[in-house]
Specification:
Radius of gyration: 21 Å
CATH architecture of the largest domain: Alpha-Beta Complex
CATH topology of the largest domain: Nucleoside Triphosphate Pyrophosphohydrolase
Strand content: 25-35%
Cofactor: Mg(2+)
EC number: 3.6.1.22
Number of strands: 16
Largest sheet: 7 strands, mixed
Mean pLDDT: 94
CATH class of the largest domain: Alpha Beta
Order of helices and strands: EEEEEEEHEEEEEEHEEEH
Organism: Williamwhitmania taraxaci
Structural class: alpha+beta
Enzyme class: hydrolase
Keywords: Hydrolase, Magnesium, Metal-binding, NAD
Number of domains: 3
Length: 279
């Protein structure tokens, strides 16, 4: 999965009063795009030494990769032709998984900061808090912590079949697992039952937790489950969310997500028959 970057190490411990050095990574975003450096055969996350000019905005320490600090730069105003903005989804295709991951987690921070430029209580321009990872209103002292939305994702099986669904989102033309955000006042298990009923109209049984995955692209924490269901139940899709949903045998699967996502990993476990030990 995206966050599995071993033997590289990711450390998100908060660090006060950090300043960038020549070898440190610089993460800069513009709307839904990330600033990358054109290397010899690929695009990489730039380091401080790759910038010729001083920064017009202060940087903010985020985390480290293999002990190398990573900083958020709010805006790049230079004209270096080697720098290119790519849509954040490009990170999913980068060959260096560790760079993909820090770019994605940085994007999560960018979204959070961008949504809280001004205080939602009094309208004052906000700042980063110096003592912890939070955004602070200097006027009314409202403190906002990073947004992390819990979402379930469930692989529903029946013998050698798995229920896969294609969403209505135009960007992704593949089949995946039923998923949805947890709502107020419900457990994760209740979320699974509700989302399955809402999206494909069936009942499930033998629900088992599998694993979790931070998914920075949507500021989410994905919580994966396996479950079973009777494939004779009629599938009734929510056409606002789902374009199509069908049962597929493990030897005739349609195009599905890659293994950087928990969905892709769970579907692959089913394809290999390794999911059965979890049921």
């Amino acid at each position: 999965m995206l966050h599995n970057i071993e033997p590289h190490t990711f450390n998100n411990s908060f660090l006060e009063n950090a300043t960038e050095q020549e070898d440190d990574y610089i993460l800069c975003y513009k709307e839904n795009s990330i600033l990358l450096l054109q290397a010899e055969h690929d695009f990489v996350i730039p380091r401080r030494r790759d910038f010729d000019e001083p920064f017009s905005d202060a940087t903010h320490y985020l985390f480290s990769l293999d002990g190398v600090p990573c900083f958020l730069l709010k805006e790049y105003g230079g004209s270096n032709a080697a720098f290119v903005y790519h849509d954040h989804q490009f990170l999913r295709t980068m060959p260096n998984r560790e760079l993909s991951y820090i770019g994605a987690v940085g994007f999560h921070f960018h979204l959070w900061q961008d949504e809280h430029k001004f205080c939602s209580r009094c309208g004052t321009k906000t700042t980063f808090k110096k003592s912890e990872r939070a955004i602070l209103c200097p006027a009314c002292e409202l403190t906002v912590y990073p947004k992390i939305s819990p979402a379930i994702i469930v692989a529903i099986t029946c013998g050698n079949k798995i229920l896969l669904a294609k969403g209505t989102h135009y960007k992704f033309n593949f089949y995946s697992l039923v998923a949805g955000y947890s709502d107020i006042g419900e457990t994760l298990e209740q979320t699974v039952v509700r989302e399955v009923k809402e999206e494909v109209g069936i009942e499930i049984k033998n629900l088992r937790y599998y694993a979790s995955q931070p998914w920075p692209f949507s500021s989410s924490m994905m919580i994966g489950f396996f479950a079973e269901a009777d494939d004779k139940q009629p599938i009734v899709i929510d056409t606002n969310e789902i374009h199509d949903a069908q049962w597929y045998s493990r030897d005739a699967l349609p195009e599905t997500p890659g293994n950087i996502s928990i969905a892709g990993e769970m579907i692959e476990l089913f394809r290999q028959g390794k999911h059965e030990r979890l049921l």
